[in-house]
Amino acid sequence: MSDAVNDPTTGHVYDGIQEYDNPLPGWWTLLFYLTIVFSACYYFVSLVRAEWTDTNLRYEAAKTRELQRQFAEIGELEPDAATLLSFLQDPEKAKWLDVGSAIFQTNCVSCHGRDGAGVSGPNMTDDHYIKVKTIEDVAKTVIEGSVTAGMPAWSTRLSTNEIVLVSSYVASLRGPNLPGPRGAEGEIIPAWGATN
After folding, report:
1. Which residues contact 108 (CB under 8 A, 6 or more apart)?
2. Is the pLDDT of residue 13 over 90?
3. Shortest CA distance to 192 belongs to which of 105, 69, 85?
4. H or E segment at 13?
5. DSSP state of 124
């Protein structure tokens, strides 16, 4: 009883119950201060992240404007034989195969390999083709994909100009007959433009 009398109280009494002035446990106080420090750090990081996001959005917008400016030089392309062959045969347009190569390296290497010799997809460096009979079929396959081969339809992810450029690049891979893990598949078809 004497211990209870010596404990400090707040002076509040509710329904005959005295409120003692006991300090919070040390771990509780530490946790409280840590939440304050964490919230300040989190606020700072959220501000920096917003700045990073704004920077990325500005970069993507600038990249899109530059791509549109570059594509204005070649206009709206059609995935027909004449257009595809023009990028293979015209030295002025051949520089656009670098853009097609970049699109290929970004989207196609996981299945077709960095050099086009195939990984899980067919080898595109030989004269054997499964679904392709003419150069237009290259663009058609890129546009529609192949359900049986597990190739997605790229028309939902790439613009028409990008499809034409990557199709021209794929057509340019034909010839060196690089060894691939799957070997030759399909039929031998005539050279590009021979049946067009």
Report:
1. 121, 166, 170
2. no
3. 85
4. strand 9-14
5. S
Tokens 């594509």, residue? 71
Task: Tell me the one-letter amino acid at 43.
Answer: Y
Residue 196 DSSP code: -
- Contact between 171 and 81 under an 8 Å Cβ cutoff? The reply is no
Contact present, 77 and 83 (Cβ < 8 Å): yes
pTM, 2 dp: 0.66
Report the alpha-carbon distance of residue 22 to residue 25 in Å, rounded: 9
Tokens representing 84 are 């595809």
What gap in Å lies between CA 27 and CA 33, rounded to an integer? Answer: 10
As a whole number of angstroms, the distance between CA 128 and CA 122 comes to 9
What is the share, in percent, of the chain residues with pLDDT greater than 90?
54
- Which residues, at least 6 apart from 50, have a Cβ–Cβ distance to it below 8 Å? none
What is the per-residue pLDDT across 71-105, written as a single tens digit (0 to 9) for each? 888 888 999 999 999 999 999 888 899 989 999 99
95-117 b/e with 16+ CB inside 10 Å = b? ebbebbbebbeebbeeebbeebb
Between β-strands 187-188 and 128-129, what pairing exists: parallel, antiparallel or unpaired? Answer: antiparallel
